[in-house]
C-alpha cells in the first residue's frame, strides 16, 4: 500500500490522547498497524508530519519519552521543541491556561509530562490543539502503546494473551491494564496491599476486557500472577512524586521482584517487560533485564514507532 493512501483514523484525527480509556479499540489497532509499518520501513520515513510543529513540555525528567518523540517527529518530517519550566515563564508563575493559549497558536500539538492529571486536563481545555499525555502521576498511555506493539510483534496477537504486571499499581500499571482491556488481553496485576490500583478502575477494565475476549484482575500473590503468563511486566517501586518512603516501599515490594525464580513460573516462551528506568536488584534483577527473556529494549525502541504513529494519526 503506498504511503499517500494513508488516512488518519477518524477517532484520532485532531483528538487529544489524555488516557486510552475513551479511545475505541479500532483506533488503538490503527496506531499499532502504522507503528509496525513505520518500524518495517527501510530507509527514510514518509513525511507524514511535514510542516507540523509539536511542543514537548517536560515538568518532570525523561529520557525515553523525550528522545522518542523528538526522533520520531524528525523522521516524519516534522519539527519539535523541547520545553521545561526552568526555561519557560511557566516556571515563574505563568499559568497553564495562559501557556496553553499561546502554545496552541504556534504549535499543532502539545505533549505534556507533568504531575497531577488535572494539570494535563487544564492544558487540554485551553490549548485548542491536540494534547498528548507524556506521563502524569495517574496515567502513561504512550508507554502502553509501545507495550502493546511489543507484545503484538512477539506473539502475533493480543486477544486472550495472558500477561502479568508485578509491583506498584501505578500510572504504568493502570495504562497497561487499560490498553489490555481495549485489546482483550487477560491481565493479572499482583500488588501488595495499599499499592493496588483503584477497585472501580479494575472493575471497569474487567468489563471492557471481557467484552473484548480478555479479563482484568488484581491479586496479592506474585506467583499466582506469574504462573503460566506469557509476559511479566514491572516498573519502579518509587514513581516520580512518591519519593520519601523508599525503605518502606522496598520492604512492601520485595516479593514482587522479577528474578529468575519468578520467570521460571511463567510460560516457557514468556517475555519480560519494563518501561524503564530500571533499578537493578529492586523490581528486576540485572540478569533478567539483560537476559534472553527480556523484550525491554524492543519495548523502549517501540516508544518511537508507536508515538510517531499516534502523531501521524492525530495530525496527518
Ligand atoms: N518509560 C519512560 O517514560 O521513560 P522516561 O521517563 O525516560 O521518559
Ligand atoms: N511509574 C514511573 C514511570 C516512569 C517512566 C513514574 O511515574 O515515575
Structure description:
There is one protein chain. This protein is α/β, with parallel strands linked by helices and 316 residues long. It folds into two domains: 3-139 and 303-315, Rossmann fold (3-Layer(aba) Sandwich); 143-299, Aspartate/ornithine carbamoyltransferase (Rossmann fold, 3-Layer(aba) Sandwich). The protein is 42% helix and 13% strand. It is built from twelve helices and nine strands. Strand 5 (162-166), helix 6 (171-183) and strand 6 form a beta-alpha-beta unit. Helix 5 (141-155) crosses helix 6 (171-183).
Shape: globular
Number of strands: 9
User: Strand-and-helix sequence, N→C?
Assistant: HEHEHEHEHEHEHEHEHHEHH
Number of domains: 2
Biggest sheet character: 5 strands, parallel
CATH architectural name of the largest domain: 3-Layer(aba) Sandwich
On the 0 to 100 scale, the average pLDDT is 97
At the first level of CATH, the class of the largest domain is: Alpha Beta
Structural class: alpha/beta
Please list the strands of the largest sheet in the order they lie side by side: 7-6-5-8-9
Helical content stands at 40-55%
CATH third-level topology of the largest domain = Rossmann fold
**First CA to last CA: what distance?**
17 Å
Please state the CA-atom Rg, rounded to the nearest Å. 19 Å
Which ligands accompany this protein?
A: phosphoric acid mono(formamide)ester, norvaline
Which parts are unreliable, with pLDDT below 50 for 5 consecutive residues or more? none
Amino acid at each position: 500500500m503506498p504511503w499517500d493512501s494513508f488516512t488518519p483514523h477518524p477517532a484520532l484525527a485532531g483528538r487529544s490522547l489524555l488516557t486510552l480509556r475513551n479511545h475505541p479499540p479500532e483506533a488503538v489497532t490503527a496506531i499499532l498497524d502504522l507503528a509496525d509499518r513505520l518500524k518495517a520501513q527501510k530507509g527514510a520515513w514518509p513525511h507524514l508530519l511535514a510542516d507540523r510543529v509539536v511542543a514537548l513540555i517536560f515538568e518532570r525528567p525523561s529520557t525515553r519519552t523525550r528522545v522518542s518523540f523528538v526522533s520520531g517527529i524528525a523522521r516524519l518530517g516534522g519539527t519539535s521543541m523541547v520545553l521545561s519550566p526552568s526555561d519557560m515563564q511557566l516556571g515563574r508563575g505563568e499559568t497553564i491556561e495562559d501557556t496553553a493559549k499561546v502554545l496552541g497558536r504556534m504549535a499543532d500539538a502539545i505533549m505534556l509530562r507533568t504531575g497531577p492529571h488535572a494539570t494535563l486536563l487544564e492544558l487540554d481545555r485551553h490549548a485548542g490543539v491536540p494534547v498528548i499525555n507524556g506521563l502524569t502521576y495517574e496515567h502513561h498511555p504512550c508507554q502502553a502503546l509501545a507495550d502493546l506493539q511489543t507484545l503484538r510483534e512477539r506473539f502475533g496477537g493480543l486477544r486472550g494473551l495472558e500477561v502479568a504486571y508485578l509491583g506498584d499499581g501505578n500510572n504504568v500499571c493502570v495504562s497497561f491494564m487499560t490498553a489490555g482491556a481495549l485489546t482483550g488481553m487477560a491481565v493479572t496485576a499482583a500488588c501488595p496491599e495499599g499499592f493496588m490500583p483503584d477497585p472501580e478502575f479494575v472493575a471497569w477494565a474487567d468489563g471492557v476486557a471481557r467484552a473484548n475476549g480478555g479479563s482484568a484482575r488484581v491479586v496479592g500473590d506474585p506467583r499466582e500472577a506469574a504462573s503460566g503468563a506469557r509476559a511479566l511486566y514491572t516498573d519502579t517501586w518509587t514513581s516520580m512524586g512518591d519519593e520519601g518512603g523508599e525503605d518502606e516501599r522496598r520492604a512492601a515490594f520485595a516479593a514482587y521482584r522479577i528474578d529468575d525464580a519468578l520467570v521460571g513460573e511463567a510460560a516457557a516462551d514468556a517475555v519480560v517487560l519494563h518501561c524503564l528506568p530500571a533499578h537493578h536488584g529492586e523490581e528486576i534483577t540485572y540478569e533478567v533485564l539483560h537476559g534472553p527473556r527480556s523484550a525491554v529494549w524492543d519495548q523502549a525502541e517501540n516508544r518511537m514507532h508507536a508515538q510517531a504513529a499516534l502523531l501521524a494519526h492525530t495530525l496527518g
